[in-house]
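Give me structure tokens for this 168-residue protein.
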Amino acid sequence: MSWTPKARRFWPLFLLVLLADCGTKRAAETHLVPANVPHEFVGELVRLTLAYNPGAAMSISLGVHSRLGFSLLALGALAILGHMYRQTLPGDRLAAAGLALIASGALGNLLDRLRSPRGVVDFIDVGVGNLRFWTFNVADVAISCGAILLVLAFQRAGERESAASLSP
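Here you go.
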């Protein structure tokens, strides 16, 4: 079996991030108990604080329907990402990397929602004093980085199309 450059970029990155996300979440649940008690990691700047988020990013909530609603949204997003992967050119490694990061992050957080009614395990706590960012996890970082890579890939593809349309 011969893998395309996009498959060689997508699948190892997808599996690496998914395993890192699941592994760090289980480690957080084992070593950062009780929940909501900060543990300094890089001084006060980066703390490790076990938290459960039954909502979505930045604690967005659908009330009692959050678990089901965000699980269905994640499944829909994974279906769209799968379609985008199939449409991606075989040599477009940048788009493949972006899709792998987003898909692995979405699946990692979905697995948490399905595993426990408490919600997604978050544990990375960044800030200074009382000025803190939302607590997040490896999946959230992967989704954010993947979105940036995907935008860059689309921008690069658009520039190639523009250049091709201008050439005689």
